[in-house]
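Fill in residues.
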């Protein structure tokens, strides 16, 4: 018979595998401005869906995509690169591949005002880039989606029949058209 500790992998756990709900809630609550790198004009693409969702939750989201630069998405002007941002942002959200993440992190670290958070979407990880950002005091979240985390922490996902691990007696607030919108803000 083997002890359960014998089945654990060797070495320390990866630093970015788990995040406390309170930590994610604090980051999403403190964030006001987001640069979404890899924004798409295609409403069926996850980056468009996340862009729309976060915009509807009160975040000022700037879409970043060199192929769409000069156009508008949901009324917001699209810029080609992070260096074209008109002002500081709280979060740089990376909707690109892991291979592209390091370069985008370096672009974010070259901004005159560092973002508070660099957030890499589901499936996007770059430990070396995360270490560079954290060395400069920037918080890094990897392999997570802010839309999913916001929905889970607000309880919206639970209304869709998904177990969010959050139990609440709060009544949903219906927005225009009878659509439910909950918030992550503490009451």
């Amino acid at each position: 018979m083997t002890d359960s500790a014998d089945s654990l992998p060797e070495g320390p756990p990866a630093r970015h595998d788990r995040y406390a709900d309170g930590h994610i809630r604090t980051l999403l609550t403190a964030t006001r401005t987001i640069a979404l790198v890899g924004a798409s004009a295609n409403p069926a693409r996850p980056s468009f869906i996340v862009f729309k969702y976060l915009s509807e939750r009160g975040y000022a989201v700037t879409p970043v995509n060199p192929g769409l630069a000069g156009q508008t998405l949901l009324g917001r002007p699209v810029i080609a690169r992070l260096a074209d941002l008109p002002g500081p942002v709280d979060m740089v959200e990376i909707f690109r591949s892991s291979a592209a993440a390091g370069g985008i992190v370096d672009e974010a670290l070259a901004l005159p005002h560092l973002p508070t958070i660099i957030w890499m979407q589901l499936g996007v990880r770059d430990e070396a880039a995360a270490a560079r950002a954290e060395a400069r005091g920037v918080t890094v979240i990897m392999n997570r989606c802010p839309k999913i985390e916001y929905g889970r922490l607000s309880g919206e996902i639970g209304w869709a029949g998904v177990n969010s691990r959050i139990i609440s007696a709060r009544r949903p607030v219906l927005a225009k058209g009878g659509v439910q919108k909950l918030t992550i803000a503490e009451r």
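Confidence is low (pLDDT under 50) at residues 1-13.
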